[in-house]
Predict the 3D structure of the following.
Amino acid sequence: QVQLVESGGGLVQTGGSLRLSCAASGTIFSIDGMGWHRQAPGKQRELVATISSGGSAIYVDSVKGRFTISRDNAKNTVYLQMNSLKPEDTAVYYCNADIASRRIYYNYWGQGTQVTVSS
């Protein structure tokens, strides 16, 4: 079994920073892409950022220049450094990853962590 566990969410004021972590555990042979999504109340889940196994990152326009995604392959962990936070960043943040326990990759999701930015 593979699990993704997020941590690092919380309440922060506008302009503040948070760092989210997501650690994969279980029987892991290889991890391909990893990413962060978010879902605000009443809205659809949206992609925030992704990072390839080689470290190439893609961001949604609304977070470019403020958020940084990174990964530690030795720790099977992906991070999301969030700076200059705005109230519109308030959402539940989910990590996901393409993980192979043997030779087939499956997409896994974490349980989500709440990020609240107060104005």
The longest strand covers residues 30-39. The mean pLDDT is 97.
